[in-house]
Amino acid sequence: MNRRYALVAFLAVFSGCRHIPGGHRVEPGLVRPAAPTQEQVRVLRPISPSGPLALKALDSASSWERNRFNFQVYCDLDGDYRVVRGEYYRTLRGEGEVGFPLISIAPILGGEGEGYLASRFVARECCRSGFSAFFLYQERTILSGQRDALGLESRMRREVRDNISALAAFSALDEVDAGRLGSFGVSLGAIRNVVLIAAEPRLKANVLCLGGLDLATILRTSRETMVLRYLSSRMEREGLSSREVELEFRRYFASNPANLAGGISPGEVLMFLSVYDEVVPYNEGLALRQMLGAPEAYLMPLGHYTALLGAPWITYKALGWVSGRFAGKQLSEPR
Known about the structure:
Elements: H1 2-14, E1 18-20, H2 38-42, E2 54-60, E3 64-75, E4 80-91, E5 100-106, H3 117-128, E6 132-136, H4 149-171, E7 176-186, H5 188-199, E8 203-209, H6 215-221, H7 225-238, H8 242-252, H9 257-260, E9 269-274, H10 282-291, E10 296-300, H11 311-327
Parallel strand pairs: 5-6, 5-7, 7-8, 8-9, 9-10
Antiparallel strand pairs: 1-10, 2-3, 3-4, 4-6
Helix pairs in contact: 4-5, 6-8
């Protein structure tokens, strides 16, 4: 009986979703920012090729095989080589295909081998749809009180470069179709993926869930516990108010999606936003859609975390859209 009530509640919620076709503006009159300069994009791209890709099979099911991978990169930010690690899900669907599409997934949380429940769910669903997928391990706490805007800028550049290096490494495999690359990001992962998409033009089918435009404004207005803890720590350590932290990020956080969204084609993006989101405030999600040129979107009558109730529905809709992108001729469109 509980399952029946849960199903009824699920259907009731998603019957209230609003689908907005691409090109329909929620708030007319806003002007998209200019495309980022070559210098803005250059600093986000790797400066040298990565080392050999090493794969180790972990487990498998009927439609996927999970592997742990690693490769070396040279990081000019650290002045040394380091190892990038993550998980790669190889699809076991679509016999006879020469190469499969590949999806780069941006984790919500971090930790070596832990905290990737959502990423693993999306990766398995990708495999069931005939796509392979990967995600990189990342540190557990991104918003450390010891990390200011410049520190987060350094971290953003590093993560974007690592993902571009991973795309290059996997694209060299015969089993991957380098002409059909996409991305899937949720929450902080969606914010990060806006920067990744702007820096990597080969990504042609990109799903952004619960993301927002301006990280400076998000930090000041979010009700997320991690964000509030970060602001409290900055106040205790440096005496900075939330408004002063906002101004700091506006001045020194160059990899803000607000600075890069103008270089992304709206036809390459599908968005999912929650109307009652107070973690990545809904208005920031709408602003991101506007600055992306009004891509296709779904507006859900949920909050940030209650949107997890719709994970199967969101993934079904998203991967259906990705399949259409990969099957269509529009993949060759210039930005």
